[in-house]
Give the backbone structure.
Amino acid sequence: MVDIMKKIFSVICLSLLSASAFSQWEWLNPLPQGNSLSSVYFADANTGYAVGGVGTIIKTIDAGSTWASETSGTTYTLLSVFFTDANNGYAVGVNGTILKTTDAGTTWISVSSGTTSTLYSVCFPTASIGYSVGNGGTILKTTNAGANWVTKWYPGNDLTSVYFITADTGYAVGDQ
């Protein structure tokens, strides 16, 4: 009987030890908002945005301690978010969705992308020049802060992320 009690005690101690060893992560707000999130971007040290399923956009103004839901105006999944400054930001996603805010995320407007391809990533190397990439090698470019987008389609596999270091030098990665 003593051996059984020692084994039970050992199992309980190991369970508690492993639970505390993996507790470095802390669930922050929203508690929970319920939709998957696919991208996060911080415009400064305190102000950040995350986007995800069913048009979810959430915002923090206290470095992630609390988050508030923003109204996106879409039910399409959003896959990437990027801000050029404290007020101007973009979110892209399923069915060619491009959203733009000019008031730090208070309101989001839909912008025509000219495609129904899923857009996986968005990046703006300058305030006016931006790129988005997606399904089937879709590459979009804007030169007027997202008002209009031109398709620079590269037929091939899906492009899942894009990053530009200057207005003319960038990198895209994807499947295969």
In short: Residues 29-171 form a domain with the Methylamine Dehydrogenase; Chain H fold (CATH 2.130.10.10). The chain has one helix and 14 strands.
